[in-house]
Design goal:
452 residues; globular
Length: 452
């Protein structure tokens, strides 16, 4: 396992490594996965790394992550760079005049912004394909190339390749959790109101959320502290919730679904058995609100499609629409005739089910597979439009309800499945319960990773 951000910062503190050397290594690593990036911020990164090295040498770091490299999904504004949203049509847009709010916060903490990462065009796919800037793939996987997961494809590959231990990403239907799952990483989808959206290009405003892809839960906790304005934060080794008595809930009906690959299910069950042996309370019971959310999405539709169409109707009605990825354009156009009455029903269902699931969980944390399968082969998805649509829906199936109900979630690598590829477990909670969720994820992480 490559070093996480806290380990890297520990090397800075000990004087065995420094931010400039780390930055130079990051730029070399980036060359190995060029499709993971839309823009390299080399001059900025080296300037910020040099300043961080001076602070560490003086014993005056700005934060626990001073000098740590971070990459940004190209929906986040970075000053003097175009925010493309992965779309060719935006290449002639004006550069951002200033950093987004979250980049400003992390710059004040001394973190080094390395690059803007690739993504599914307009962030509208769970698989990560992009015909304009290339589709990044994980060089660590044997055999034919696999889909990286989307929409935060470049973010996941950048962390997997070691370019940066943290990639700031976005999640509307699963865009943090899915690529984290496909690449054996940690992905944290925050509650929608936790962080500022200033300077972030939206997709579906009622569903969008922000968060990082990382190598460890402890990194996500420190980052959360920094983004909320706490430069020091709690000592990470003391914030985990106690395993003994920790309430975990798993829906047997959901877990028994034939669409979940046997290895994905087996790895999740084994993790729960280890947790139960350590003293966690594992409750096997129905979670009707989650099941109802699945049914609403399947029978009425996905609110994100309607909101994304509303956002991009002007583009779709213009000659520039011809420049869009045909797969993205077709899916956006699919919501053109979506009736307002269905949208209202979806808003109402989301509010009711959000309250319902908080009551049903009653302090427990929901455990599900993050995705029902491992990363699919890339070439067939590029060649077969119908297969792409079906696989995209299957990939997002278990993360979409959490988005609909604004459930913060942490994806954790749980083992390996088909072709030795990573599987993932998703720990979720009710809206706004992020702090407790992160502490619970920190507690269960060693038991979940024991399958690796």
């Amino acid at each position: 396992m490559r070093a996480d951000a806290l380990s890297l910062a520990g090397q800075f503190a000990a004087g065995t490594h420094d931010p400039v050397t780390a930055m130079e290594a990051a730029l070399v690593s980036a060359q190995q996965v060029p499709a993971a990036f839309i823009t390299l911020c080399e001059a900025r990164a080296l300037r910020e790394a040099a300043a961080a090295r001076c602070r560490w040498q003086a014993g005056q770091p700005l934060s626990a992550f001073d000098g740590v490299p971070v990459v940004w999904k190209d929906l986040y504004d970075l000053a003097d760079h175009i925010t493309t949203a992965g779309a060719k049509v935006r290449l002639l847009a004006q550069p951002a005049p200033r950093d987004c709010a979250l980049a400003t916060a992390l710059s004040r903490a001394g973190m080094v912004s390395v690059a803007k990462t690739n993504l599914s065009e307009l962030a509208y796919s769970g698989l990560g394909l992009n015909p304009h800037f290339g589709t990044p793939t994980n060089p660590g996987f044997a055999g034919a190339a696999r889909a990286p997961g989307g929409s935060s494809s470049g973010s996941a590959i950048a962390v997997a390749q070691g370019v940066a231990p943290i990639a700031m990403s976005t999640d509307t239907a699963g865009s943090i959790r899915v690529p984290a799952a496909f690449n054996g990483l940690v992905g944290y989808r925050s509650s929608a109101k936790r962080y500022s959206f200033e300077g972030v290009t939206p997709l579906a405003r009622s569903l969008d959320s922000l968060g990082p892809i990382t190598r460890s839960v402890r990194d996500a906790i420190v980052l959360d502290n920094l983004l909320l304005g706490d430069r020091l934060g709690m000592p990470v080794d003391t914030v985990a919730l106690p395993i003994v008595g920790l309430k975990l809930c798993v829906d047997a009906q959901l877990l028994g679904d034939a669409r979940i690959q046997p290895e994905v299910r087996a790895n999740l069950v084994a993790a729960l058995e280890r947790l139960a042996a350590a003293g966690a309370v594992v409750e096997h019971r129905a979670v009707p609100a989650f099941q109802q959310a699945l049914e609403v999405i399947e029978q009425i539709g996905w609110l994100g499609g309607a909101e994304a169409f509303a956002l991009y109707q002007g583009l779709l009605d213009s000659p520039q629409a011809e420049q869009l990825d045909p797969r993205v354009r077709k899916r956006l156009e699919g919501a053109r005739a979506y009736p307002a009455s269905k949208q209202v029903l979806l808003y109402q269902a989301a509010e009711a089910l959000k309250a319902q699931i908080a009551c049903e969980l009653d302090g427990a944390f929901l455990v599900t597979p993050t995705v029902g399968h491992v990363a699919p082969l890339l070439a067939p998805l590029e060649e077969d439009a119908e297969l792409f649509v079906a696989t995209n829906l299957a990939t997002l199936r278990l993360t979409m309800p959490g988005s609909m109900l604004d459930m913060p979630g942490v994806a954790l690598p749980s083992g390996t499945g088909e072709a030795g590829l990573p599987t993932s477990l998703l720990l979720s909670s009710s809206s706004g319960n992020d702090k407790a969720l992160l502490r619970a994820a920190l507690a269960i992480e060693p038991y979940v990773r024991a399958g690796l």
